Amino acid sequence: MKEMIVYASETCPMRAACRALEGKWKIPMIYVLNENGTLRYNELKRALGITNMMLSNTLKELEEEGLVIRVQYNEIPPRVEYHLSQLSRQLIPVLDAFCQWGEVLLAQEQRACRAGDDCRDPE
């Protein structure tokens, strides 16, 4: 009999991955940095439509987890740029597949709208 997978276990790889990406903004931030390359703080803010507090907290967490690299240049005015680490680049094929799945969902929604069904599920 196959051994049961226990998500609650500290050694569960899915739990470790989910913990690293938990929160509303981490996956979108990795996606935006992958699509646009190195970005400055305000560029990230515009691209995500995120508040300063959420952007700062999310960047700090991603940097601590080794998923985003922060580069500060000693200039006046100060310039700080962010880009993906090698560790987060390993996630890109998964995000690409997730994006393709999103395309399927959007196409399904568009077909439902053209057919006269509700365009959005009310629940």
List keywords for this structure.
mainly alpha, 2 domains, three-stranded antiparallel β-sheet, 6 helices
Termini gap: 39 Å
CATH topology of the largest domain: Arc Repressor Mutant, subunit A
Q: Rg from C-alpha positions?
A: 18 Å
Largest sheet: 3 strands, antiparallel
Reading off the top of the CATH hierarchy, the class of the largest domain is best stated as Mainly Alpha
Number of strands: 3
Largest beta sheet: strand ordering:
1-3-2
Low-confidence stretches: none
Q: CATH homologous superfamily of the largest domain? A: Winged helix-like DNA-binding domain superfamily/Winged helix DNA-binding domain
Which outline best applies?
flat
User: Structurally, how many domains make up the residues?
Assistant: 2
Structural class of the helix and strand makeup? Answer: mainly alpha
Order of helices and strands: HHEHHEEHH
